[in-house]
From TrEMBL, chains A, B:
UniProt-listed PANTHER family: CARBOXYPEPTIDASE Q (PTHR12053:SF3), PROTEASE FAMILY M28 PLASMA GLUTAMATE CARBOXYPEPTIDASE-RELATED (PTHR12053)
Short name of one Pfam family: Peptidase_M28
Region forming the signal peptide: 1-20
Subcellular location: Endoplasmic reticulum; Golgi apparatus; Lysosome; Secreted
The keyword Transmembrane helix appears for this protein: no
Protein name per Swiss-Prot or TrEMBL: Carboxypeptidase Q
InterPro entries in alphabetical order: CPQ, Peptidase_M28
Lineage, top ranks: Bacteria, Pseudomonadati, Pseudomonadota, Gammaproteobacteria, Lysobacterales
Subunit structure, interactors included: Homodimer. The monomeric form is inactive while the homodimer is active.
Length: 470, 470
């Protein structure tokens, strides 16, 4: 197979341009346009200015807040000023969660303040709560605790996330955040505190969603910074009971309707066939949402705009989507997928990709497409190679907001980014513009523009995938 | 001169041990003991456990707070458990400043919260204050503003501290913090906000002292994090008026008496002659004071304790001083100097050193001594050389708490530390235990034990210096 592809590749560049078109739907001119898009982005893209504008003029834009509405207006205006052919808003409705004050301290035996933040969706403490803390090495240890053993206590899950380039330390660690409250409440706990799902040692607490289960008491849930978790561990190992005070306010004021903001470059031949790229427009409230996910919005807006400025539009439509409320439940991605399914447009979605892993450089191209379309992916990979991007046939996954449409059968591509430092800043007050390297941003624009343009220019069908549980 | 010293050094190691004693007061046995102290510390010292204990069991210990009293009791007990011959408290009285709440946000044209902290000594805003902000590139630019030109405005000083190994970026930058309120008030400003005196880009505001002048209105003063200052600069350059909201509470509840905590190893021959090492026991309230200056206290306590465990005490007394309230005006160092002057003990202070520049490795030995005693410093430097420490005849300065006794004529030594990252953490919530490298701490214990032991073992008089303005 490898040899066969190799021979095919040789033939493409040598004597058989017609065959090239058969396998990839792309000719030398198309590849030259892609290389031009790529190289121009590397010379300097608009992405930095876009993310600077978003973080400066809107800043934190948590779903359901006034800043969410400001972000939607910002995105609409930005798409228009960037010259997209069509810009529209797609309503997305969800329940709102609002953070109030949050304070924590060690009451005894060594009184001192702690840096914490409520997890997204948590209830408040309904006044100040004071209780002894019981440490668990991880979620499994908490699950193994005897029923009722935490009556009146605060559960503390102290496991530490491990750093990897691809962020694979997140999965094993994040259960403490998403499931901690339910598991602690089952044992009788009055609250749960976790070590932040984080890879660094700065004193920022990392927020993120948690959930409650029907029939299990809803207890407050908060994360503390890594240094605070270290401190608590060091206190606990001295052997005296450690009492914490927690005072957390939070509100669930009802539903809100925000919007996916969509800009498209209309395809010249096959406008009904759509390649989508995008990021999510909402952020958590603590930082300015620069790397999560102002960067993704900026990269894909800039990539789309670069395609829009070409002399000739690609065959298919390129759609850039700034998704609503990813952080609190992928609401924008789900609504986008539902609406496309209702309209019978899943198969028309030729390839979907999302940038939502910070602002580090792209190092791999992966995809989930019909095997017959793989030569197109390989060809895109060849154009991406000078950016330091390798094409990987195995593994990968669509971005979070692309997940719902992929679950309905749509195909996807992933431009995997170096996320080595992503979980240093993710979901903290420290997610700010200065964490972005403008040159890395340009590299990503180059990668997204190349991917989107070639996927939209080819007429090879990327097929569909077997629908699955989202 | 260099050649002469070189020949002398050769002679010391070769044929003339009697001459060695004449020039340095140290023989081969003394140097062997020093090397043993040094090498044992490098194998692992007690400093980590000491600073872990202080930061865990006491934590933040701002002067005049209940944690200040807890720190004094902690230090006394720690000196005693480390086997110091004599441990005592020296009262130090000072005015107290207490931080209350502090909130800031951009009100218009781009509403979003800002991370700020009140500067030490600042008055509060007396409710919420809202005013337009005017940017100045540095303190000099503010000073050059026309009288009355800031009537009803908030002055913003945006200069950025530069990173150097020896921290020399601090001096040019810190005037904005110490003098900003006075200069802004002279022009009519209602408050001053500054870019934190900081070398990194994490979203921590750095506190630190500021002062008021008689006859100039006392206006609130706060620092914002570097990312927040960037944000404000980016907003201002868009050209629309930028309005800030500030709500800062602070109290000046009166005087408090804390204590210098002193432990000493009594000299075997010359107990009235004293070599002092130390750090300051107080910290700011935001972090746990690990690098500023738990490290200094721990390093010098561990060094003193190592000397105390030797079979034979040095000729002179070694005194380890945990100074009170360095942060808000060098109160502990001033009282220590005054009391020694009153007792006629300045000349008996043979050499004084302080560790108060974080937890980075020592790279240079410098001193201010009678030129006749310089061969002793050179000899100490030879024992320190394997630690990567060079001896520098020029430059250097005593630590902040040593300054007052040096101003009265006492001699000093400096073990200059690598402070490359010191101003990343200094005076922030992020000054926590995890920022300390235990191996670097051991190296510093090795250096301080070597210095203190050799300075206390020699009978060469370090002399006195011309008294000067403190």
């Amino acid at each position: 197979m490898r040899l066969a592809r190799h021979l095919l590749a040789l033939s493409l560049f040598a004597a058989l341009p017609a065959l090239a078109n058969d396998a990839t739907g792309l000719d030398a001119g198309d590849l030259a346009v892609a290389a031009g898009l790529r190289d121009q982005a590397m010379q300097g893209s608009e992405a930095w200015d876009i993310v600077e504008s978003l973080t400066t003029e809107v800043g934190p834009r948590m779903a359901g807040t006034p800043a969410d509405a400001a972000a939607v207006q910002w995105a609409k205006a930005k798409f228009e000023s960037l010259g997209f052919d069509r810009v529209w808003l797609e309503p997305v409705t969800f329940p709102v969660w609002l953070r109030g004050h949050e304070r924590a301290e060690v009451v005894a035996p060594y009184p001192q303040p702690l840096v914490i933040t409520a997890l997204g969706g948590s209830v408040g403490t309904d006044g100040r709560l004071e209780a002894e803390v019981v440490e668990f090495a991880d979620l499994a240890a908490l699950q193994a605790a005897p029923a009722g053993s935490l009556e009146g206590k605060i559960a503390f899950i102290s496991n530490r996330m491990v750093r990897f380039k691809d962020g694979r330390g997140y999965g094993p660690a994040v259960g403490a955040r998403s499931r901690g409250a339910v598991e602690a409440a089952k044992k009788g706990a009055v609250a749960v505190v976790i070590r932040s799902i984080s890879t660094n040692s700065d004193r920022f607490a990392h927020t993120g969603t948690m959930r409650y289960d029907e029939g299990v008491p809803r207890i407050p849930a908060a994360a503390m910074s890594n240094p605070d978790a270290d401190l608590l561990v060091n206190m606990i190992r001295r052997g005296k009971p450690v009492t914490l005070g927690l005072d957390i306010a939070a509100e669930h004021p009802g539903e809100y309707t925000s919007h996916n903001v969509i800009g498209e470059i209309r395809g010249r031949d096959l406008p009904g066939e759509v390649v989508t790229i995008g990021g999510h427009l909402d952020s958590w409230d603590l930082g300015t949402g620069a790397i999560d996910d102002g960067a993704g919005v900026a990269i894909t807006m800039a990539a789309g705009a670069a395609i829009g400025r070409l002399e000739r539009a690609p065959r298919r439509t390129v759609r850039v989507i700034a998704y609503a409320n990813e952080e609190q439940g992928l609401y924008g991605g789900k609504v986008y997928a539902e609406n496309r399914a209702t309209a019978g447009e899943i198969a028309a979605h030729q390839l979907s990709a999302e940038s939502d892993f910070g602002a580090g450089r792209v190092y791999a191209l992966r995809a989930g497409v019909d095997p017959a379309a793989w030569p197109v992916i390989e060809k895109i990979g060849e154009v991406l190679a000078p950016l330091g991007v390798v094409t990987e046939r195995e593994g990968g996954s669509p971005g979070p907001d692309v997940g719902p449409i992929v679950a309905r059968g749509a195909t996807w591509a992933q431009l995997a980014q170096d996320g080595t430092d992503y979980f240093d800043y993710h979901h903290t007050a420290n997610d700010t513009l200065d964490k972005i390297d403008p040159k890395a941003l340009d590299q990503q624009v180059a990668a997204y523009a190349t991917l989107a343009w070639l996927a939209a220019e080819t007429d090879v069908d990327f097929g569909t995938l077997p629908p699955r549980q989202p």
